[in-house]
Amino acid sequence: MSEVIRDIRQAMKDGELKAFYQPQFDSITSKPVSAEALARWVRADGVTVPPMAFIPELEKSGDIREVDWYILAEVCRFLTRLKNSGVTLLPVAVNFSRVHIRENDFVEKLCETVDGFGVDRSLIEVEITESALIDDHYMIKDWIKKIREAGFSVAIDDFGSGLSSLSFVKDMPADVLKIDRSLLSGNCENEKERIVLESIFYFAHRLNMTTVAEGVETKEQLGFLRTCDCKKIQGFIFAKPMPEDEFYKLCEVHKAAAETADILEIQSYKGAADLLMDVIFKRYPLVIFSNLTRNSFYMMSYENFTSTGCPSTGAFDELIIHGASSMHPDDQDIFAATFNRHHLISEYESGKSEVRLVTRQLGDDGIYRRVETTDYFVKSPSVDDLLVITLCDNLPDE
Ligand code: C2E
Ligand code: MG
Ligand code: MG
User: Fold this and answer.
1) 278 domain residue, yes or no
2) Taking ligand 3, which is a single-atom ion, which protein residues have CB atoms under 5 Å away?
3) Residue ranges for the chain with pLDDT beneath 50
4) Domain range for residue 385?
């Protein structure tokens, strides 16, 4: 048996193996909302040994299993301590090595330990590193599923550090995606790196995963992560991993400072734009996004509009033919001529920023109503295509 393994076994017996806590902060409010437990060997001589000095060796021998269960028990004991003193409880993520995936009674043991301390299962998050995912796909998927069914949450750690791809992650029913700090090199000033990060966050949010950025150290990184709507920040910019007592104090203070920040000061541009969209959808019952250059469109919102018989996506030219046919016979020609794609392009080229027309449209109830259609020309910063946003409004009867 190697010296390291002997030392760590002894450290567990002597209570020298400790869970340190690194808080995770809400990216918008900058308040601590959860934490990750990280193993440290705090030697009798006062030296703190970091996990990378012993974990790789323990992984090889399989002794890492004992360490992970030991840290979980430490975390549960700590959460009970917080609960007993009435301090706000924050969920804690615990790292589990890949070797647990092949442990048949893993979920039973997890439940037994956590329930044994009387800790709510929803307060424990199981972290498994991304590189473990490329092992047996089905086995891991099943492992994650069972953990979640038992009431715990699951995080995929170190995403972007190894070989796993978005396609692996899409099949994993995990709750949280932790983005590795290797993807945050520098201050996110490289455009291609920013595009990669934006795509990862977009992808994770589309899969309803909570996102955590690891290793955030600078204001610039934080600013960029907010524009990606990254949910939580874990990094030295806010806090380093700290001993239990220090984290305990932080939880106490957190309870005292419960006031919420002004959303207008901290909201990302994208978050504000999403709210603005809500207002536009409330104001206009029909909103269409079209690409005049490529002859395509899709309905962005379609609610309580006079006529509902229109396809929701397809060729722009067909949309106009369909639209014209739903107008009063006296308005059909003017509608078709005004919104004809080539006419719109020439209007844009002659310097117009919008084209507007009021027509009478046949409703589903067989009654004609006045409708105002306004096309706004927009240019995308990334393509040369000419785009149009159409806002349609039902006008009151004359
Ligand atoms: P991890 O799970 O990805 O944990 C995050 C690591 O990033 C921690 O290193 C943390 O201190 C570090 N970190 C956080 N913010 C920053 C930052 O802003 N800048 C920099 N440079 N680093 C930051 P730590 O504590 O040394 O842990 C290293 C790894 O050891 C962990 O990576 C995890 O994979 C493993 N580990 C730690 N504790 C355990 C455990 O109890 N069980 C298992 N199986 N693995 C553990
Ligand atoms: Mg981790
Ligand atoms: Mg990590």
Assistant:
1) no
2) 157-158, 214
3) 257-258
4) 284-394
